[in-house]
Amino acid sequence: MADQFQGEPRIAWYPSAGNDFRDLLYLSAKFSELEPALNPELEPQPPDIFLHTDYFPSNIFHRLPFSDELIVHQDTRTTISVTSSEELPVCNLPLDDEIVVFKGGNRATGRVLFLHVEIQSNILGNFNAPVLYAFVENAAFCARKILPYGGRLSHIVHVRFGGGCGGGGRSTGIWLLNILQRVHCEVLVSDNSYMRQSGDERIYALYPSLAGDENADQFEKIRTIESRRWSDYGNVTWDVVRHL
């Protein structure tokens, strides 16, 4: 896997991704070309690899999601397919009952897949993208795997967080606002659906490294798309992070 990249890869993290792979479309160079940013000079280069995390609710899958070749999305304009997958070492992290909705794990819990994904789009063309998918709880993954090892994330996607596209949770992901500076995030792509919930309070108690002032004044908006195109929770904005 590491042999595919020269130097340090640019990573786009989509926590609470569920079965949604539209970030591969909306973070592509072709999309940026077709729908230019308000200030194109501020838009970061596209990611090299996509990191998806989601614990997935128990008992909804009879096999490991995405482990076989299959179509994960298809409409009249776009087909997204997993062409091959490789299972990587297990990532054991807690599932706290006060954060997740569905108690206990399932056959996916803690497992990690490296996916080769093919996109066929009438608008964006045909291209491939690598996706690392970890079936883990998002906050635990950030607090125990990303921050302690100095992880760098060029993009973070906050869309339908906590129950929109496959899973369920008691957090809106507002804690993501507190890590942007530390992971050197360049752009936050978000439907701006933030309202602190009980799960967020629990996350701050369990993982103090994720706590902060939830500063929403660290951005410069460069693009907005209508809610119906991706989120249904609210219009999705591309916000360049001002590093303080």
Class computed from helices, strands and strand pairing: alpha/beta
What does the radius of gyration come to?
Answer: 17 Å
Strand percentage: 25-35%
Task: Give the N-terminus to C-terminus distance in angstroms.
Answer: 34 Å
**Approximately how much helix is present in the residues?**
10-25%
Q: Poorly predicted ranges (pLDDT <50, ≥5 residues)?
A: none
Main beta sheet: strand number and arrangement?
10 strands, mixed
The average pLDDT value, as a whole number, equals 90
How many distinct domains?
1
Helices, by number, come to: 4
Strand tally: 10
> What general outline do the C-alpha atoms trace?
globular
Succession of helices and strands: EHHEEEEEHEEHEE
Instruction: Report strand order across the widest sheet.
Output: 3-4-5-6-2-1-7-8-10-9
Describe the protein in words.
By secondary structure, the chain is an alpha/beta fold. Helix content is 11%, strand content 27%. It has four helices and ten strands. A ten-stranded mixed β-sheet has the order 3-4-5-6-2-1-7-8-10-9. The longest helix has 9 residues, at 138-146.
Main traits of this protein?
ten-stranded mixed β-sheet; single chain; 4 helices; 244 residues; alpha/beta; 11% helix
Summarize it.
The chain is built from four helices and ten strands, in the order βααβββββαββαββ. It is of the alpha/beta class. A ten-stranded mixed beta sheet has the order 3-4-5-6-2-1-7-8-10-9.
